Amino acid sequence: MTIDREFRASQKNQSPKCFWLTGLSGSGKSTIANVLDQKLSAAGKHVFILDGDNVRHGLNKDLGFTETDRVENVRRIAEVAKLMADAGLIVIVSFISPFRSEREMAKRLFLPDEFLEVFVDTSLEECQNRDVKGLYAKAREGKLLNFTGIDSPYEAPTSPDIHLRTELNSPEECAELIMQNLK
User: Fold this and answer.
1) 3-state secondary structure the chain
2) Of the residues 25, 27, 94, 97, which is catalytic?
């Protein structure tokens, strides 16, 4: 194509980035993504959020929550995020993405320094306390199968690019920590 990713990024006066927020359900990923989106947009940046909830209603509505479906869910999101980065955007991906191997697969799609794994680290107990949808209770009762953190594993990042602790920092403080990694 004549118009390439470098032109699209220069047109937007920014470097494409993918901030991949991973953590348990209720950890604060979506809240932090929203605050970060507001801050970046206020700074004149071109941003888009890919969130587990909004993507599962469209692009990934044919997928369930088995391990195989979760792997495919992350693969599709990674490909979409890569296309958005090629368009020069800053992409905020807010997905549980429970498996290290799939997050590594996503990272390999991007140029060096373009993908940042952001671990939204919140204890299981706190996530359950924040659970406004009652998903953890349903999972514990056996009414919701393959729920990450209950009967499906979550593999925490071993060396994330950004490590956020939401029990110590507000969503605004977490978003600021992410913004410090914008070049």
Assistant:
1) CCCCHHHHHHHHCCCCEEEEEECCCCCCHHHHHHHHHHHHHHCCCCEEEEEHHHHHCCCCCCCCCCHHHHHHHHHHHHHHHHHHHHCCCEEEEECCCCCHHHHHHHHHCCCCCCEEEEEEECCHHHHHHHCCCCHHHHHHCCCCCCCECCCECCCCCCCCCEEEECCCCCHHHHHHHHHCCCC
2) 97
- Residue 161 pLDDT > 90: yes
Measuring CA to CA, how many Å separate 61 from each of 14, 23, 68, 145?
A: 32, 21, 14, 17
Q: Is 152 left (phi over 0), alpha (psi -120 to 50) or beta?
A: beta
Q: Rounded to the nearest 5 degrees, what angle is found at the Cα of 149, between the Cα atoms of 68 and 66? A: 15
For the question of residue 15 being annotated catalytic, the response is: no
User: What structural domains does the chain harbor?
Assistant: 5-179 (3.40.50.300)
pLDDT at 91 over 90: yes
Reported as a single tens digit per residue, the pLDDT across 114-134 is 999 999 999 999 999 999 888
Single pTM value for the model? 0.91
Asked if pLDDT for residue 149 goes beyond 70, the answer is yes
